[in-house]
Design brief:
Helix content is about 40%, strand content about 20%. It is built from 21 helices and 25 strands. The N and C termini lie far apart (about 65 Å). It has a five-stranded parallel sheet with strand order 4-3-5-6-7, with helices on both faces. It has a five-stranded mixed sheet with strand order 12-13-14-15-16. It has a four-stranded mixed sheet with strand order 2-1-11-10, with helices on both faces. The protein is an alpha/beta fold.
Length: about 600
């Protein structure tokens, strides 16, 4: 890329070399507004100088929270340009979680997009006034200030500020300067602030373009992405900022994940990355439509998908394009129309990360001509350690290590990593940092895995999630949960049975696929709560678990009892993180009675009889 000093310098280079090219897009009152690279950088400078006018010092953290919008990245790069450190949080955070971030980061300035989130910051300050040091509140959106300074007013301040101080700070930015905090989602305890520096971000950018070179070079494809996953998560930072900045691409901001389908249709991105749950929701909706096609239309759709899946499987195995008249007809008659209906007709690269995805889902989208590439990593590794190279996806694995990352599996099965993209540690948490990084510089991921003969990594579970049966067998629940989650009608499965004589599972129904579940179970569709109590549903699900899970694992890994919960797991309910990972400790506490009942009964173990 044009600059190897920082992402801010890359932004400046785009503003200089392609000033009138579109950079970022956001809707204002339902109408798309576009900022060119020149406008983008000019506004970032105004934000940076406004922060300096408020007393912001190099190395200071600035708290940021809000939905995905242009103002979010204007603030982020303004903070970075002023040699500061964005300390973002999830909009769904509780007041206590906001207070923790404000305390840990020692932010003197806090930025939020709406009145509701400005109020959350105020409540967090009031919760711990002796430890929270916030002196200035800023609201991104005009009319949402609620007594805070508006971003417009902050930029006005910046315009009145001389350039000298900002230019000096920009010139002094170095690879070792911390420039971003990513707070872990806290599946196992209090959120930790992962410190990332400019060298980490630039290193990850370079490694990814080496892994996915199609967006660089003379024959490169345009990089167009919809930004909809939380910007406080490293995955969206990679897609919205690292990759787009490196490719000179375009970003369309979607502030509400429920509107992502509409934004895809309008933006028609060339890149789409989603957590497994999003891909699974798309799959459920598409399967319902495809199964409704009967007669000649239904037969044609099945033929097209079978033809494409066979060709795609060969293509990925041989790592070379596979053409043919049948495949071309399948795309023209069926698959091209399906992809256009999704807004993915220009799609070049599809990806997934953050949680395991089923092989069934991967094959479903492959049958539509969409090869989903799996990536694996964590905030502490600047997002990605391994990934399937472009055009080389291998179903059921998370690819090979990125060039520049050392990855190995320890004797106990834990995945270890080191390299230029590893964090230096957690902000103001030395004990946790020491636990994360050993004396030889290896980052302990906490994940379990194994390499296949070709060097592809397969994730088998979480070290802390291991269950030990009463017989002394170690069991990684993720394997069984992966099989169970492929069953139509199940949204999440949580395998339990630590120190118990057998394993059981809590099941959560998929509220968007109750029609299919009812048909499979031979019962009437009802509310989620009522279907969870339906004996026919329970009997069907256990039979499906016998077929799709128990038949594929060792005897000590089989599920002997199930409990269908009459609720849906959610972020608000506390069972899921904002990236849809299950919080096992919360679930264990919240559903302790249900879990206990699974093991308390002396009756014959539940079976599909």
């Amino acid at each position: 890329m044009k600059s190897t000093q920082s992402l801010v310098h890359q932004l400046a280079a785009h503003a200089s070399e392609t000033p009138d090219a579109a950079a970022i897009h956001g809707k204002v009152d339902g109408v798309w507004k576009t900022l060119t690279w020149a406008e983008y950088f000019a506004q970032v400078r105004e934000v940076a100088k406004g922060l300096i006018a408020l007393g912001h010092q190099p190395g200071d953290c600035v708290a940021v929270v809000g939905a995905n919008r242009m103002e979010w990245v204007l603030c982020q790069f303004g903070i970075m340009a002023a040699k500061g450190i964005p300390a973002p949080g999830y909009p769904t955070n509780t007041v206590e979680q906001f207070a923790h971030i404000l305390r840990n980061s020692r932010s003197k300035i806090a930025i939020a997009d709406t009145k509701a989130l400005v109020s959350q910051y105020r409540a967090a300050i009031a919760l711990d006034p002796s430890q929270v040091q916030v002196e200035h509140l800023v609201a991104m959106l005009d009319g949402e200030d609620d007594g805070a300074m508006s971003l417009t007013a902050l930029r006005d301040k910046g315009r009145a500020e001389p350039d000298t101080e900002l230019d000096g700070r920009l010139a002094s930015l170095g690879h070792d300067d911390t420039c971003l905090l990513i707070y872990t989602s806290g599946t196992t305890g209090v959120a930790k602030g992962v410190m990332l520096d400019h060298g980490n971000l630039l290193g990850m950018q370079e490694m990814l373009f080496n892994h996915v070179p199609i967006f660089r070079g003379p024959e490169r494809k345009p990089y167009i992405v919809v930004s909809y996953l939380p910007l406080c998560h490293i995955a969206e930072q990679i897609m919205t900022n690292l990759m787009s900045m490196g490719a000179g691409g375009e970003v369309y901001f979607c502030p509400d994940i429920s509107q992502v389908k509409d934004h895809l249709l309008e933006a028609r991105p060339t890149v789409f990355v989603a957590v497994p749950r999003v891909w699974e929701k798309f799959q459920a909706a598409l399967e319902a439509k495809l199964s409704a096609a009967t007669g000649i239309k239904g037969a044609l759709a099945r033929w097209a998908r079978d033809t494409e899946l066979e060709a795609m499987t060969r293509e990925l195995a041989e790592k070379a394009p596979v053409s043919g008249l049948g495949r071309a007809l399948a795309h023209k008659l069926v698959l091209g129309k399906v992809r256009s209906a999704l807004g993915l007709d220009r799609l070049v690269m599809a990806g997934t990360a953050a949680a395991p995805i089923s092989v069934g889902t991967l094959k479903f989208f492959a049958s539509l001509g969409i090869a989903i590439h799996e990536y694996y990593g964590m905030s502490e590794t600047t997002g990605i350690l391994t990934g399937c190279r472009f055009g080389e996806a291998r179903f059921g694995t998370v690819g090979t290590p990125l060039e520049g990352c050392e990855v190995k599996v320890a004797d106990d099965g834990e995945i270890l990593a080191r390299g230029r993209t590893m964090t230096r540690g957690y902000l103001r948490m030395p004990a946790e940092t020491e636990e994360l990084i050993d004396a030889e510089g290896w980052v302990h991921t906490g994940d379990l895995g194994a390499f296949d003969a070709d060097g592809y990594l397969k994730i088998t579970g979480r070290k802390k999630d291991l269950l030990i049966t009463a017989g002394g067998k170690n069991v990684a629940p993720a394997e069984m949960e992966g099989y169970i989650n492929q069953i139509r009608g199940i949204a999440q499965a949580v395998v339990v049975g630590d120190r118990m004589p057998f394993l059981a599972a809590l099941l959560v129904l998929d509220p968007e696929n109750l029609d299919g579940l009812a048909a499979d179970a031979g019962t009437q569709k009802d509310s989620l709560e009522n279907m969870a109590k339906d004996p026919k549903v329970e009997k069907h699900l256990f039979a499906a678990i016998e077929e799709h899970c128990n038949s594929k694992v060792a005897r000590y890994q089989t599920i002997k009892r199930i409990r269908v919960l009459p609720v849906a797991f959610s972020v608000d309910g506390g069972e899921l993180t904002p990236t849809m990972k299950i919080k096992r400790n919360v679930i264990a506490q919240k559903y302790a009675a249900e879990i206990e009942s699974l093991f308390a009964s002396k009756d014959e173990l539940l079976s599909a009889q």
